[in-house]
Amino acid sequence: MPSSPTSIEAKIDEFLRYLAVSRGSSPLTIRNYGHYLRRLLEFMISRNVEPDISLISPQLVQEYRQHIASLSDGKGGTLSRRTQGYHAIALRSFLKWLTKQDYVVMAADKIELPKVNDRQVKFLTEEQVERLLAAPTLSNLSGRRDKALLEVMFSTGLRVSEVCKLDREKVDLERREFGVIGKGGHARVVFLSERAAEWIRQYLGARRDHYAPLFIRHKGKLDITSEDDDMRLSPRSVQRMVKKYVKKIKLPVDATPHVLRHSFATDLLVSGADLRSVQEMLGHKNVATTQIYTHVTNQRLKEVHDSFHNRHQTPVKTSQEE
After folding, report:
1. DSSP result, 66-80
2. What local confidence, expressed as pLDDT, does residue 116 receive?
3. Which residue, 219, 197, 195, 214, is CA-closest to 141?
4. Which of 6, 103, 182, 211 could covalently link to 98 via disulfide, CB atoms 3.0 to 4.6 Å apart?
5. How much is the pLDDT for 302?
């Protein structure tokens, strides 16, 4: 029996297609939104409520959120407030989209997002970055690839998914710049340091293959019949690679590819770059997202203030000294 035109299941599928085609959302975002929204569908069925978009009400949403708050996180606890917030964000986006499609549904702004603590940004110091960049062994092709990859990530602040999508013909090593399509299909230009460009040259100069991806896997023998994307390094492989080198040099920070992105942004801000420029380089849609780095740099600014301003001040005499 075909589903109703206003069934939640049918509308979820349409919404996810909209995210993929019109919004250019990443596969991970689409998967997560689908997961969160289907939890609402399962909740309505479990409560014997017809799974129709017109029946999403404030009372139902309140009960649903209480249900989400009680779910196990698989680690002996319940879902974090941040994860609960992701469910609310997905539902708000879904309702906004339905409204734009002229369906009469609950207003999205009736869903309040839970307050969560500010996200703590992990980043590496300059000395830790240099140690990590120097960690790969350069005696083999995999090591040269890893060296070039680490240099590119710190030089550009690219997301791990973005760096894995790079093709060598699209990277202009002479101008040391290239374009990427980031989250939501937003295009931006990123820039390479001279050092990163040189390590890419050395890595590509040592390769003897025809594959288009800038970074490929090198385990085992190359199969000349493999397709480009079969050889492309995956985000998971890059995450494992970074973790390997963090362990090798015994870094006190649990660094990931995203920590390198944080380190790139923090380094720019501490060096005097303005927030809007960093926003552009990171590919953030809203400057508010970039502002998570300001509390990291505030301490550094305070140290600069203390060093260069306080030396001009005459100590204030206490009443006893007077």
Report:
1. HHHHHSB-SSSSB--
2. 59
3. 219
4. 103
5. 63
Q: Which residues form the catalytic set?
A: 159, 183, 258, 261, 284, 293
d(CA 50, CA 110): 21
Residue ranges in the chain assigned as alpha helix (H): 8-21, 27-46, 58-70, 81-100, 126-133, 141-156, 160-164, 194-206, 228-231, 235-248, 257-270, 275-282, 287-290, 294-308
DSSP of 169-202, one letter per residue?
Answer: GG-BTTTTEEEEE-GGG-EEEEE--HHHHHHHHH
Query: Of 26, 292, 287, 23, whose CA–CA distance to 159 is shortest?
Result: 26
Quick one: which of 133, 141, 139, 138 has its CA closest to 217? 141
Of 309, 299, 297, nearest to 273 (Cα)? 297
Q: What is the mean pLDDT of each run of 10 residues along the chain (322 residues)?
A: 74 94 83 95 94 94 94 87 91 95 93 70 86 94 96 93 93 94 84 95 94 89 70 93 95 89 87 85 82 67 60 52 47
**Coil, strand or helix at 275:** helix
Closest CA to 133 of 267, 275, 233: 267
pLDDT in the model for residue 119: 57
pLDDT of 114: 75
- What per-residue confidence (pLDDT) applies to 220? 61
What pLDDT, on the 0 to 100 scale, is given for residue 57? 94
Domains and CATH numbers, the chain: 8-110 (1.10.150), 126-306 (1.10.443.10)
In whole angstroms, give the CA distance from residue 152 to residue 148.
Answer: 6
pLDDT of residue 81: 86
- Tell me if residue 291 falls in helix, strand or coil: helix
